[in-house]
Amino acid sequence: MGFPLARPRRLRQSESWRRIVRETRLTREDLVYPLFIVPGTRVRRPVESMPGVSQLSVDECVAEARALADLGVPALILFSAPEVKDASASAFLDPQGLVPRAVQAIKAARPELIVWTDVCLCSATDHGHCGHVLGSGAIDNDSSVATLAQVALNYARAGADAVAPSDMMDGRVQSMRQLLDRNGLAATPIVSYAAKYASAFYGPFREAADSAPAFGDRRSYQMDPANAREALREVALDIEEGADLVMVKPAGPYLDVIRRVRDAVDVPVVAYQVSGEFSLIKAAAARGWIDERAAAFETLTGIKRAGADLIVSYFAPDMCRWLPA
């Protein structure tokens, strides 16, 4: 039945109509906000390439967490940039390190917040790679996996609500799951960055986390942006190894991958709207080229429409202010 009987505009003629027939709804409960922890006290250092985002000392991280909880942000993911960096990422194995202390302090202050901890080695290594480097410059998978599992155990013991491996080493989910289970932490979920691409959109994050590689790139372990079928294989392997949630990163350039993952699995799917996506919108809005609020809503709605159950985004605080009560 075509025009004039078919008139789809009837259901778009007012905001009231558009609202009640809306297919995809973005809510506060969809959002996870990243925090960047650095040494010191009373440190709140703006990240130049990410307007509105700051590196925070543990005490300021707790203050920020209180404010975020008051806004309605339901979950956080913690990253850190320790002062001491070495080849073995020893700062991340310290039970009194930045992340364990932040986890304990945030959970004491606002226990209702869900606190994830990113598990990688890049910001604690002197070479900036996500695993151990051999003399040849190659990244050694299996020794890296053993260390990553110990980092996950350290964070889980501190009280993290989930550990989130982002390194893209083979077998790290299985190693973490087994180590956590052996140590009485079988209830700690694993949020796997299952399909993490070697993206051009990570630059601002590397300023925030002080995690740029000192040599080379990460293409030998992060995924080729041209591949989608491989993402489904990575996701399936991680679920088989014990992942409770799986993540696609970045989000915006990989909406097709999010959709394919959502159709293929039954576990929750997370998408990460990464720093470059955020900073592009911020930069264009600052020049008056686009409407920041409208662009944030549109991009995040698109990510959810593609199939994401949860979205990690630097827009989370603003979205909680903008979304209706």
Tell me about this structure.
By secondary structure, the protein is an alpha/beta fold. The chain has a single domain, classed as Aldolase class I (TIM Barrel, Alpha-Beta Barrel), CATH 3.20.20. It has helices at 15-20, 58-71, 98-109, 141-158, 172-182, 203-209, 229-241, 255-264, 275-286, 292-306, 316-322; strands at 31-37, 44-46, 54-56, 75-80, 114-119, 132-133, 139-140, 162-165, 191-196, 245-249, 269-273, 310-313. The strands form two sheets. Strands 1, 2, 3, 4, 5, 8, 9, 10, 11 and 12 form a ten-stranded mixed sheet that branches. Helix 3 (98-109) packs parallel to helix 4 (141-158). The longest helix has 18 residues, at 141-158. It is globular, with a radius of gyration of 20 Å. The relative contact order is 0.13.
Question: What class, by secondary structure content?
Answer: alpha/beta
Total domains, how many? 1
Give the name of the CATH superfamily: Aldolase class I
Mean of all residue-level pLDDT scores:
96
What is the first-to-last residue Cα distance? 39 Å
Coarse morphology: globular
Number of helices: 11
Major sheet: 10 strands, mixed
Low-confidence stretches: none
Number of strands: 12
Q: Cα-atom Rg, whole angstroms?
A: 20 Å
> What's the architecture, going by CATH?
Alpha-Beta Barrel
